[in-house]
Amino acid sequence: MSPTRPRVTALASLAATVLVIALAATGCGDNGGDRANGQNSGSGADSSGGGNSGGKNGSPVPKLSWKTCDAPTAAQGAGKAPGRAWQCAKLPVPLDHSKPDGEKTDLALIRSKATDPSRRIGSLVFNFGGPGASGVAALPALADGYAALHARYDLVSFDPRGVGESAGVRCQNDKELDAAYQVDGTPDDDAELRQTLATNKAYIDACAKNSGKVLPYVDTISAARDLDRIRAALGDSRLHYFGISYGTELGGVYAHLFPKNVGRTVLDAVVDPTQDTVQGDLGQTKGFQLALDDYLKDCASAGAAGSGGRCPTLDEITTLLKDLDSRPLPTSQGRKLTQDEATNGIATALYSKDTWKYLTAGLQEARVKGTGNTLLLLFDSMAGRSPDGRYNNLQAANRAISCADSEERYDVDDVRRLLPEFKEASPVFGESAAWSLLSCTGWPVKGKWKTPEVSAEGAAPILVVGNAGDPATPVAGAANMATMLGKGVGVRLTVKGEGHGTYGVDACATKTMDAAFLDGRLPADGTTCP
């Protein structure tokens, strides 16, 4: 089963934070060893006072009732309550936006008011990606990194529909998921193929049984309409928005639907809106291979100093994965590390340069000790599995939203036809990526598009940021997003760095994004950092 390598994933810094905590707690990991040019972003200094209009959504938006936040639920990823600086609310929105007065579903929201209220600009709404990441859980965990923005903005995020506590999609239970992830997702013979297809069908049937009511309505267009209702409920005339990873696709769709409501907006780690599913997955496969190659070069040049042992080679990694296909490694949890889990664990570590050292440690552990503890923890981070064995709904929501969006459905013949191209793109990730094309096969809901519509004529300028070494959203996606947004709207910034996302990682990019949000100034289109 290969549903754990989603087309797009959550913000890398969040994953890195979770990994560092988890690896430290279990004793794994370190085994021994510029200027803006004055272009205005469109909105004024104070965007409050937008009223309660629902805009194109029709019915009036109710007033939000904020209260002290509870701890994140298991569906959101669990954890401690965020503290007194944070407030939570529920916003009812139409389940079906074509029926604004029909059945409602609640969106979970969180905010922390601007720390310098005398200089407050308005609300800044975050989407951290996935699709499937809980903004209610993520924003407090990451807020320290947004201190400069927090001074002048109320920081706001939400669980998009189908995510966390916003009618979160439920599919299989924890034990069923543990068992499903042990099934070989890259079948080598007819028996393995039958088991893979049966596992995929069981998962989809469980989604339909447990969440069939919401599955038709978790698409990105519906989520973008929710964003506009959030804007109205916050009292803002324009939406100031920070979208990361999948959040960039959501932001592009929002700009298309509501160009006149676009405020100060930054899209970081950009999903390519011109690519269909195969093109996107193939591009991501190449991106992960590029990131792996960069990791191997960096590790070799540093001599694996402080990273837990001798640097691996690409041949050693491919040999390890081949051996795992028939001989999974034992772990201290009593679970086996399978080939799929190791492949996804390796991919997880490539999202941030901060976690490269854990990849070295995990590969060293597997080669020398013959155990898979570190690689399994890396996999669990991507799969949304906590140390106590509970899964959040990240992967269920990821698949539900992806399948509600994409109209494309592939069969085994398609996969076999495409396998050589995927394998050529990456000897490590190609096979898994190709078989993951079956994720939406048999899904009970038809998708909306081959590619999203993001043209936004009349919108305020939007800063679009791409990182040269991004594995999950290759840098070409930022250029294509800027072009598709339209002339005078998309403003492209390219960062020469590693990892998924640049804010708080690259000083030049962070300074440029801060200028866009705080001063309404954008760089010249085509600017490069550093």
Mean pLDDT, rounded to whole units? 90
Bulk shape: globular
Helical content band: 40-55%
Count of helical stretches: 17
* Main beta sheet strand tally, sense and closure: 10 strands, mixed
Please report which band the strand proportion falls in: under 5%, 5-15%, 15-25%, 25-35%, 35-45% or over 45%.
5-15%
List segments where confidence is low: pLDDT < 50 over at least 5 consecutive residues.
1-53
Distance between the termini: 41 Å
Number of strands: 14
Main structural class: alpha/beta
The strands making up the biggest β-sheet line up spatially as: 2-3-4-6-5-7-8-11-12-14
Radius of gyration from the alpha-carbon trace, in angstroms: 22 Å
Verbal overview:
By secondary structure, the chain is an alpha/beta fold. About 40% of the residues lie in helices and about 15% in strands. It is built from 17 helices and 14 strands. The protein has a ten-stranded mixed β-sheet with strand order 2-3-4-6-5-7-8-11-12-14, with helices on both faces. Strands 1-13 form a two-stranded antiparallel ribbon. β9 and β10 (about 335) form a beta hairpin. α1 (about 10-25) packs antiparallel against α12, α9 (about 315-325) runs antiparallel to α10 and α10 (about 340-350) crosses α12. The longest helix is centred in the middle third of the chain and has 26 residues, at about 275-300. It is globular and about 60 Å long. About 60% of the residues are buried. Mean pLDDT is about 90; it is low at about 1-55.
